[in-house]
Write a structure and sequence with these properties.
It is a single chain. About 65% of the residues lie in helices and about 0% in strands. The chain folds into two domains: about 60 residues, RNA polymerase sigma factor, region 2, helix turn helix motif (Rna Polymerase Sigma Factor, Chain: A); about 90 residues, Arc Repressor Mutant, subunit A (Orthogonal Bundle). The protein is mainly alpha-helical.
Length: about 160
Amino acid sequence: MYAVCLRYARTREDAADILQEGFLKVFLKLEQFQFQGSFEGWVRRVMVNTALRAYQKQRFDFEQSGYERLPDMPVEPDAVGILSEAELLSLVCKLPDGYRAVFNLVAIEGYSHAEAANLLGIQESTSRSQLTKARRHLEEEVRKMDRIMTAKIPNIL
């Protein structure tokens, strides 16, 4: 569950706070679990909702990262397919808050854009735009990583 919280939080300390608050909610609302589906899935949903509420409390409405002016064009679906899970998680954690929240909900958790928009209090079109920009941001970071790795390997031939 810590990994779920870490994806939504800005820092490890924030993730630990979210995790603690989430488990407190699980404990206090345990009687609401109706044994329909897995217990782990229910706990995960509580953690995601707790993380989203924490995100909404500290959300920066006018946060800009320079990617807002990029045109909304489709991004290849395998733009980050060459990364390990740890590398991808590291890149996702570096995304601006809005991009990270939508990316986590839609690309990782499997929510629809309508559900993500409802949870985040944004328009569905904003969710789509944020996901496109998040993917583009991740693709650019992967290219940077590739250039660094290529530069470190000497050309023997």
